[in-house]
Design a protein that fits this description.
This protein has four helices and five strands; from the N terminus they run αββαββαβα. It is of the alpha+beta class. The protein has one domain. Strands 1, 2, 3, 4 and 5 form a five-stranded antiparallel beta sheet that branches. The longest helix is centred in the C-terminal third of the chain and has 23 residues, at about 120-144.
Length: about 140
């Protein structure tokens, strides 16, 4: 019985907090702005033999990045609109790549936007390309 009281009090506090936030923030609309023809920016390139040891061909793999922008518009004039970007990273495997490499690169990876102070967006994409390389390497280790 003594455990029930703190739980009820916590639920009441959560409900009160939610009601106050709804009153302050107000209603909002959510929209995604993604173009029909997404522009994929090449952020990094690497030789296929570096990752896929079964490949005998000499080829370059390009990591591409695509930004998906989301906007949250609040009806309350006190709250500024929120703009958030999510980056989709991936690469395409050539025909002569091994089935293991094709399976690894079949799924794209999504990263939220992280802003480093005073750095342009191109710089962020470069670091995201390196993160994607690390993910590819960890996926390859799982398949071994």
């Amino acid at each position: 019985m003594s455990n029930e009281k703190p739980k009820i009090f916590k639920n009441l506090l959560n409900d009160f907090h939610q009601a106050v936030m709804n009153f302050i923030v107000g209603r909002w609309t959510f929209s995604s702005t993604e173009t029909d023809n997404p522009v994929r920016t090449v952020v990094s390139q690497f030789p296929l033999a570096l990752v896929d040891k079964d490949c005998t061909e000499d080829s370059i793999i390009s990591i591409y990045c695509h930004a998906i922008n989301y906007t949250v518009r609040y009806t309350n004039w006190l709250i500024p609109n929120l703009k958030v970007s999510v980056f989709q990273l991936g690469c395409t495997a050539p025909e002569f790549a091994s089935d293991r490499f094709k399976a690894i690169t079949a799924k794209d990876v999504y990263f939220p936007e992280f802003r480093i102070a005073f750095m342009p967006r191109k710089h962020d994409m470069k670091y995201l390309g390196r993160c994607y390389m690390d993910i590819l390497i960890s996926r390859l280790k799982k398949y071994e």
